[in-house]
Amino acid sequence: MTVKLEALILAAGKGTRMKSELPKVV
Question: How many angstroms separate the Cα of 20 from the Cα of each of 5, 6, 9, 14, 17?
Fold first, then answer.
């Protein structure tokens, strides 16, 4: 459960920088 949360936070942080790759993952 903790790993998933960390992955989500990491993905969100990366999404803010490269929104081109993650346009709408959530």
Answer: 22, 21, 17, 10, 9
